[in-house]
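User: My collaborator sent over this chain with a note saying "see what the structure looks like." That's all I know about it. Can you take a look?
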Amino acid sequence: MSEQPGSKSEPTTDPDVGADQSSGETIGADSPGAAGTTEKDPSDWVTGDEPMTGAQRSYLDTLAREAGEQLTADLTKAQASEHIDRLQAKTGRGNSGSS
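Assistant: Without extra context I'll predict from the sequence alone. Here is the result:
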């Protein structure tokens, strides 16, 4: 297939990266397991004051049972996220990679 005239001046998207190369934006990491620096504190989330999602509620129920804790059922997304982080550390689930 031949190139069309003028096609070299248009921004190209690398399908393997998924980023517009003219803007320099990327997603993912440059090496496996590299942590991003754009993680927001849950209290800064735009939707953080909305009710927790069904997935958060289900996972929190599992974590709370394993930790022997009871939590209120009317948490916000941000509050649920903070409890999930805390309970993952307490139970050894989640980020550490152990079950």
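A starting point for your reply to your collaborator: The chain is about 30% helix and 5% strand.
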